[in-house]
């Protein structure tokens, strides 16, 4: 299962990117320049994760070369590091922080699932963070846009529907893989079996799918009022995060920005940002989300 995770992540990334490209071409060929422009605009926030990836390469002591910059300009930073690989066994432990999915997958194949595979697995944390950031900044807006096109504009649109479905699956998998590796880094935690990962994927997919569908249907009926509903939810979640006194970010300005960003994420899904049991926090999140949906249906 460990070696399958980076391979599955690469496959989902390739499928989701391919469907997005098809959607862009679809709108361009049909002359729907408005939807074409909005779909292209959803690509721009993804460069934030690419910039963070380059900064992490520099922090690891690698000088960004032309090939590395081209990869990130094409938004392929999660695929290949662009850093020359050393054949020595110590490369995994010394330069593991600069790995990307293709590099880690190749290293796992070379090690044949041996004891050192666990060392490589711990280096996937930064890649999972980058994948989650890219999914939230780029895949989520694309999912909302394509879902709205399918529901309100072109219900028979095959390409937008496929693109929305793959975006939903890619976003759900990014959340699952992030949760899996954050748990795996804790002492005494083992890799989750395939069935547990599947259950987590189904849970995340269902949660995100119903939330996106509710917002899209509300936007179809009440147009821009959906921003008021989302804004109220964002404010509630942001203040709730401040009340929890999360200490992930130390600087005051960055701490406020972090709470605002995670509060925006909480419009769609829950991410645990504090150590320890999260049953109470998850219950509060679902209670607020349920009331949010009920209020939107009463309007």
Overall pLDDT level: 78
User: Whole-Å distance between the termini?
Assistant: 47 Å
The strand count comes to 0
Shape: globular
Give the biggest sheet.
Answer: none
What would you call the structural class? mainly alpha
How much of the sequence lies in strands comes to: under 5%
List SSEs in N-to-C order: HHHHHHHHHHHHH
Low-confidence stretches: 82-98
Keywords: Cell membrane, Membrane, Transmembrane, Transmembrane helix
Membrane topology: Multi-pass membrane protein
Organism: Grallaria varia
Protein name: XK-related protein
Offer a few descriptive terms:
about 300 residues, mainly alpha, transmembrane helix, transmembrane
Give me the secondary-structure topology:
Blueprint: H1 4-29, H2 33-41, H3 47-59, H4 66-73, H5 91-94, H6 101-111, H7 117-122, H8 125-153, H9 158-184, H10 194-222, H11 225-244, H12 252-265, H13 279-298
Helix pairs in contact: 1-2, 1-6, 1-9, 3-4, 3-8, 8-9, 8-10, 9-10, 11-12, 11-13
Description:
This protein is mostly helical and 299 residues long. The protein has a domain at 3-79 and 117-223. 72% of the residues lie in helices and 0% in strands. The chain has 13 helices and no strands. The chain has helices at 4-29, 33-41, 47-59, 66-73, 91-94, 101-111, 117-122, 125-153, 158-184, 194-222, 225-244, 252-265, 279-298. Helix 1 (4-29) packs antiparallel against helix 2 (33-41). The longest helix is centred in the middle third of the chain and has 29 residues, at 125-153.
